[in-house]
Amino acid sequence: MPVLKYIELKAGFGDRGPAWIAKVELSKSKTTLYFNGSALCRAKGGGVSGNYFDIETGEEYWVSGAKKNGEDRHWAGSGRVLVEAAALEEYLRFRNVRALDPKHYEVTESIAKTDVARLTELQNRPLK
User: Fold this and answer.
1) Residue 105: closest CA among 88, 128, 123
2) Over the stretch 13-53, which tens digit does the pLDDT of each residue have?
3) Hey, which residues does 4 pair with through a beta bridge?
4) Handedness of CA 93, 110, 70, 19 (dihedral sign)
5) Are the C-beta atoms of 68 and 96 separated by less than 8 Å?
6) pLDDT by residue (tens digit) across 85-127?
7) Would you list the domain boundaries of the chain?
8) Residue 42: partners with Cβ closer than 8 Å, 6 or more residues away
9) pTM summary value
10) How many angstroms separate the CA atoms of 87 and 97, rounded?
11) Shortest CA distance to 7 belongs to which of 55, 71, 73?
């Protein structure tokens, strides 16, 4: 069952990377989440600036639950947060607001479907 998360790309951006509020799928162990065509795996012991990494690219992400007050971005961060169109209604209900401030949010339909089977197979391949 998809869950609502805040996802921010950290790789090379610090606290100013692209960010999303979106529904993600979780693995059975809940240590991997599937989002925007990628598998993000929890960084054991933490990463340099993120808590998850893309299993294919190694890019770091910060992933957390969405905050009711909407202050998901780091205080030093900037830029609009993209809200997945399919998650908009749930996010508005969660925040108990009728609309999002266009200075801080933008609704997007550009989040790619994720081939969970392909990524699970890739992640579970034996090491050579």
Assistant:
1) 88
2) 888 899 999 999 999 999 999 999 999 999 987 666 789 99
3) 23
4) positive
5) yes
6) 999 999 999 999 999 999 999 999 999 999 988 998 888 887 6
7) 3-123
8) 31, 32, 51, 52
9) 0.91
10) 14
11) 73
